[in-house]
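Hi all, long-time lurker, first post. I run a small reading group and we've been trying to get comfortable going from sequence to structure in the token notation. Rather than ask abstract questions, I figured I'd post a concrete chain and ask someone more experienced to write out its structure so we can walk through it together at our next meeting. Sequence below, copied exactly:
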Amino acid sequence: MRVGIISDIHSNVEALRAVLQEFEDRHVEKIICLGDIIGLGSRPDECVALLQKNSDKILCAVRGNHENYLLKELPVHNHGDKTKPKLPKEILDLFRWNHRQIVESSLNYLEKMPEYAIVEVVGTRIFVSHYPKENDVYRQFYYKPNLKESEEIFAGYDADIYLYGHTHIRNLEQSESGKLYINPGSVGCLIGTDSASAGILDIEKDKITY
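-- Answer (accepted) --
Happy to help. Here is the structure in token form:
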């Protein structure tokens, strides 16, 4: 099965459309979304609606921190980390404006998303998260974790493939036993480039290719 992986769309509907078209051109069968569909950009509701339109292809979608800002509460500090400075009013106002664009049907769709999930594809267990948590708090943050750091942040979760986003930076690590730790990068808010980033997993019975 060919599975497309997207994360951190951040209300950038043009980038999302481009990636979905690329998936179609490359014969992607199912899609996994790692959260932060909304937030920051100017067209959050259109992004949610576009995912709903493609619901027959969505294998799994989980919430990111920006969905939780909408569904739970706005953070006082960045990502809720009290060791970081308080967020300025301008940023919180941007979040509030973003939330006001979400219509009820989109809100209901986002509410049904879990914080994380484990899905099985052709006998392969895939752990799906925006970024792994412990006691409802994100674990140690690494922009581009090496193998040891990847194993650390996913400790306690049993899977063959671990998917995460949140950092907006593409990353791939593989253990000696073959476990994969994958961050596809950001669809709509990449750091240091004007390109949309996503990933494709080809999962067969005896072979996995990313």
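A couple of things your group might point at:
DSSP finds six helices and twelve strands in the chain.
The mean pLDDT is 94.
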